[in-house]
Amino acid sequence: MRRLLPWGLALLLSGCIPQEPRPVPPKPFQFRRLDLSQNDARGRRLWELQSPRAQYSLDQRQATVEGPRGRLFHQGAPAYAISARQGVVIKDGEQVQLNGDVSLRTLDGRQVLIRAQQAVWRPAAHTIDLTGEPVAEEGRQRLTAASARFHTADERLELTGQPRLRIWDQAPLGRGPASVDVAIQNGAWNTANGQLTAAGPVNGLQRRGQGRPDRQLTASALEGNTREDWLDLLAPVTMNDPGEQSSLKAERSRWWYRQNRITTEAPAQATVRQLSIAGADVEVRQNERQIRVGRSCQLIQPKESLRADRCLWNWGTGALQADGSVELRRSSMRQVTRAATLQGTTDARGQVTVAAPGQRVTTVIEVPPGRQRPPAAGPTPPAATPTPPASPRAIVF
Fold first, then answer.
1. How many CA atoms are closer than 13 Å to the CA of 13, on its beta-carbon side?
2. What does the pLDDT profile of the chain (397 residues) look like in tens digits?
3. In this structure, are residues 196 and 184 in contact, taking their beta carbons and an 8 Å threshold?
């Protein structure tokens, strides 16, 4: 009779059947130093990467490196130094992943620094993708975004995810609030020449300090050059200054943010308290509190208006100068004053006092007809032919 083994024993015996040993994965090679580099077709160096310690996996063609350091070359000359705390070199340099304190620094006098926490470098594609609070700095200017891509061939940094441009005026970079703080949409900054472009809407402010309200600005898009310290604000452009009770509405305008100056060739209109000044070829000097209108100047305030070919007005002192076919109109008595040049001042009430030194001035005043006196008591005079009402008289000086 056949005897059956208990299940437990059968399982135990089956486990005693000898099995083939599993292959042991090869240990990664240990290197005291790793050197990688690539040249172009003309033999010029494109990039190089070194590490003092590395582990290399032969089957995966992948190296884990500590403290990687390298250089990027432009036309055979060293252009950027790149570094990180750790890295992974994939497929012998087809892709390099950098982790921790990633830094990309220019090796010439530009002093451009790009930082992030992580980066993926693809040498063949000439791109470095930066994540983890990427920051680009030059001088007292800083650009930030959620992510960025640096194109190494044309030295262009693309910014995505709520980019911001911040500029420090006097204080060192990052010390205290920025003097200029502009929020933009996706943009690009060229580290070689400083050109900056950004889609809108653009919203920014200029901090004035000393407890004064900030100036605020809006635009549909932005172009500029951080190396030359100017930004072109694209129409429609608005700038408001609550402290000065002033505003500016304009088409494309150039903001020289270091000089606190705005220029535009297109028509613009500025309002300061109750006075409005408009025209083309406009320059606003905020430090001097001065507005210059180079063409078709119009100055309008309650009960008065002035037209001229060009004018210059200081809203701080009230000084006013108008040149070329000047015409000043006052609603009181319909007064019109014409001259080649007028100088004057505006007071706190918005009234203009003018003079024309050495110039011929023509003033026309319309005087309304006077009221007739009531007739004296006495015999009723014979009826007379009705006289038509008098018209206003024009007095010319």
1. 6
2. 333 333 332 333 334 445 555 655 555 555 567 888 889 889 999 999 999 988 888 878 888 999 999 999 988 899 999 999 999 999 888 999 999 999 999 998 888 999 999 999 999 999 999 999 999 999 999 999 999 999 999 999 999 999 999 999 876 787 888 999 999 989 999 999 999 999 989 999 999 877 889 999 999 999 999 999 999 999 999 999 998 889 999 999 999 999 999 999 999 999 988 889 999 999 999 999 999 999 999 998 888 889 999 999 998 898 999 999 999 888 877 888 888 998 888 776 656 677 666 556 566 665 566 544 555 545 545 544 444 444 443 333 2
3. no
The tokens describing 191, both together, are: 């580290």
Is residue 298 within 8 Å of 306, Cβ to Cβ?
A: yes
Q: Spell 241-270 as b/e; 16+ CB within 10 A means b.
A: beebebbbbbebbbbbbeebbbbbeebbeb
Is residue 392 within 8 Å of residue 366, measured between CB atoms? Answer: yes
CB atoms under 10 Å from CB of 234, counted, come to 17
pTM over 0.85? The answer is no
Q: Give the contacts of 311 (CB within 8 A, at least 6 positions apart).
A: 277, 279, 292, 293, 297, 299, 320, 321, 322, 323
